[in-house]
Amino acid sequence: MVVVIDILRATSSITTAIAHGVEAIKPVESLVECRQLMMDGHIGAAERGGKKVGGFEVGNSPFSYMNPEFEDKKIAMTTTNGTVTLKKSKGALQVLVGSFLNYSALLSYLERLPCDVLLHCAGWKGKVNMEDTLFAGAIIYGLKQMFEYNSDAPMMAANLYKQAKNNLKAAIEDSSHVSRLIKLGLEKDVDFCLKFDEYKVIPILKGEYITKLKLSDMLF
Amino acid sequence: MVVVIDILRATSSITTAIAHGVEAIKPVESLVECRQLMMDGHIGAAERGGKKVGGFEVGNSPFSYMNPEFEDKKIAMTTTNGTVTLKKSKGALQVLVGSFLNYSALLSYLERLPCDVLLHCAGWKGKVNMEDTLFAGAIIYGLKQMFEYNSDAPMMAANLYKQAKNNLKAAIEDSSHVSRLIKLGLEKDVDFCLKFDEYKVIPILKGEYITKLKLSDMLF
């Protein structure tokens, strides 16, 4: 069982899209593939380095996925880190999408699971980042030692979360990616992505598409 | 510039040995190589999984390196994680050995350096661990943003250190490796390895051997 985490902003945007009625999202790695799927009736979503790529309908802002016109539509999405992490997670028993926006829904599913869980943080271009680690820490903190740890990393993430939980924004303000987004004028995206429990959906990658986790998908 | 960090216990023991007058330490990866060097007049030091390996003179306890008989002698040393990390660091401008035992000496060298610094934590069998991260955090905290960060990892380590600094032992007690050492009856080793500034030496890997950093080695 893998939970993919890319708080700023891929997994927050995916959660938002699925919560707002998007039927399915296909994560793809390249802009070329994304463009081909646009011709095939998908809405094209592409972000690189924090910015929407020209010629695509949306970028990676969660607000752009609240569009009622996207209801029951399919989206092809490519982002700097998030979609790569989703693709790398394939082969797991289930691949879920986590964000603060669906924290409690995810937590109540995880705490009933009879299997190992890997919290797969996207980070930034192959390196660890603060916001994804804090969310992983929030999950570990919330699970209250129901799981054994495979290394010290979960404990470290939970400690960082405990230290930061009363002011998550302050804790990530110095982080590389957050400064980058704020410089790009995306502070309202950052604020939204740090909100707990806006939605109750759990997106799940099944085959090539991310859809809403249904009762029949649940492993208990 | 690389600082190798394996708090429990390789880099703490190396610091202790060099401070107590050992002439040079050759880190080797295999027990076979270590044994060959014993025949060649070296003192043989070998640890695996926290325990001294049979047939060698010392293991990985810092106390065993306080032996006056080792003064001006050469040691061949192989440990589970530390020596591998030292070997992987070869090729850097300089490879230094860091531990709480020589914290301030190391810090005052690093803060005057005109180059990038990589804090290379040994961890445990390829995974991150708490005690090495806390020491890296102590260095980053001590350097007070004299350096820019290459990712969020240094900030995360410094935050963990800030949270833990008034009681380092409590912070590492739940860590995988510490529980392992305490079970092996090595709590006094853990306590010693968490002491700040017992020594003023900075061990440096030059060629195949670790010796004491001299004034003529300094890069400023």
Would you kindly provide a brief summary of this structure?
With about 220 residues, the first copy, chain A, is α/β, with parallel strands linked by helices. Chain A contains nine helices and nine strands. At the A-B interface, helix 6 of A face helix 6 of B.
Class based on secondary structure composition and strand pairing of chain A: alpha/beta
CA(first)-CA(last) distance of chain A? 13 Å
Show the largest interface.
A-B, 23 and 22 residues
The fourth-level CATH homologous superfamily of chain A is ComB-like
Describe the structure.
Two copies of one chain form a homodimer. Chain A has 220 residues and is an alpha/beta fold. Helix content of chain A is 37%, strand content 17%. Chain A has nine helices and nine strands. In chain A, the strands form two sheets. Chain A has a five-stranded mixed beta sheet, sandwiched between helices. A four-stranded mixed beta sheet of chain A has the order 2-5-3-4. In chain A, β3 (43-48) and β4 (51-52) form a beta hairpin. The mean pLDDT of chain A is 95. The interface between A and B is medium-sized, with 23 and 22 residues.
Question: What key attributes describe this structure?
Answer:
homodimer; 220 residues; alpha/beta; putative 2-phosphosulfolactate phosphatase; five-stranded mixed sheet; four-stranded mixed sheet; 9 strands; 37% helix; globular
Summarize the helices and strands and which ones pair or pack.
2 copies of one chain form a homodimer.
Chain A: E1 2-5, H1 10-19, E2 24-27, H2 31-39, E3 43-48, E4 51-52, E5 74-78, H3 82-89, E6 95-98, H4 103-110, E7 118-121, H5 130-143, H6 153-164, H7 168-172, H8 176-183, H9 187-193, E8 203-206, E9 209-212
Parallel strand pairs in A: 1-6, 1-7, 2-5, 3-5
Antiparallel strand pairs in A: 3-4, 6-8, 8-9
Helix pairs in contact in A: 5-6
